[in-house]
Amino acid sequence: MKTELLAPAGNLAKLKLAIYYGADAVYLGGKSFSLRTFADNFTDEELKEGISYAHARGKKVYVAANIFARNGDLSGLEGYFSLLKELGADGVLVSDLGVFSLAKKCGLPVHVSTQANTMNAEAVKLWRELGAKRVVLARELSVPEIARIHEEVPEMELEAFVHGAMCISYSGRCYLSDYMDGRSANRGECVQACRRSYRVQAREGDARDFYDVEEDGKGAYVLNSKDLNMSAHLFDLEQAGVCSFKIEGRMKGEFYLATVVNAYRRILDGGYTEELGRELLAAAHREYTTAYAFGKENMQSNESSQTGGMYDFAAIIADMAGGNAVAEMRSRFFEGDELEILSPTESFLKTFRVENMRDSAGMPCTDAKNVQALYTFPCPYPLHKGDILRRKH
């Protein structure tokens, strides 16, 4: 099968944006049962619209139901899976064997979530025997280990994360959020306690004195993982048998989503270049790593919880009218500013200066200062709804 680019969709608008920028499939969650409770997620009506929208464009939709379920969840899951079957979902992601069984009974194609921590060929064989269509491999695997699994179970679809945030615990099976804040990561309520700055104290022998262990006087990010970036190694993963490249980020914003999907689409279609590699520095991110892919790298980020991107997200194109861009403002910009185009079209990376700008009332203005207000100005390049205008720092 053709290698699939799989993008996150935190809401319906992001689903449409991911597809516009080149995703072959999206994964999303409903209002219950997935591991991103704090994302906007999808109502039943939005699921219906999203699946129809994707299918009309030849794209697929996978729905996450990968909580570690309790008895009280099971009756609701049965009804939910019946709905997903009726709506035509292309697959459901699960991590729990009981949930797996319910999904199979409803006739849904089942993908085994990375939360299941699948790390060897025997586990993949067992999932195949149980009726799974795809396994999302644990992030802790190396490329040779993935190749070995594919060699032993060639009929199983293998999906792997290629980009985005990584949990510091094994395959995301973490108790820290629950322990510290009473919100279970394994039921979709992670507060990302691992991203906080910590001060570690040690006690020597029976002494009651504690000593601060600090880094640069600001505390230590002892649990803060770098972000995964496999953009330069997609061919290695493809050769190892991975059929779906997964981007993390259902809680990420529009600018991040468009930037990352656009870069990976172009890399998949035309090969890796340094220019496309630099694109992945455009939006906010942490330090990058290839993690376990080629032998364990240092994955701990000691700098901060985020690294700012190279660009501000100035506006998103809402329409074109008479050769003028109709742009919905996201961060303040001014007449005379140079903006760069982020687009899946040939207008990508083209720049122009904002001139003759008018506000939503049609009045001349020099300052786009109202968030989500519409501003109109000429652009010498073709633009389409969903294209993004960004400004370099």
Summarize the structure.
26% of the residues lie in helices and 23% in strands.
Indicate the overall shape.
globular
Query: What CATH architecture of the largest domain do you see?
Result: Alpha-Beta Barrel
The proportion of residues forming helix, as a percent range, comes to 25-40%
Low-pLDDT residue intervals, each spanning 5 or more residues: none
Rg, rounded, reads 23 Å
**Rounded average pLDDT:** 89
Secondary structure tally, helices: 10
Give the strand order, joined by hyphens, for the main sheet: 1-2-3-4-5-6-7-11
SS elements, strand count: 20
CATH level 4 superfamily of the largest domain: Phosphoenolpyruvate-binding domains
Task: State the order of secondary-structure elements, H for helix, E for strand.
Answer: EHEHEHEHEHEHEHEEEHEHHEEEEEEEEE
Quaternary structure classification: single chain
Question: Could you tell me how far the N terminus lies from the C terminus, measured between alpha carbons in angstroms?
Answer: 41 Å
Biggest sheet descriptor: 8 strands, parallel, barrel
Number of domains: 2
CATH class of the largest domain: Alpha Beta
Q: From the helix content, strand content and strand pairing, which structural class follows?
A: alpha/beta
β-strand percent reads: 15-25%
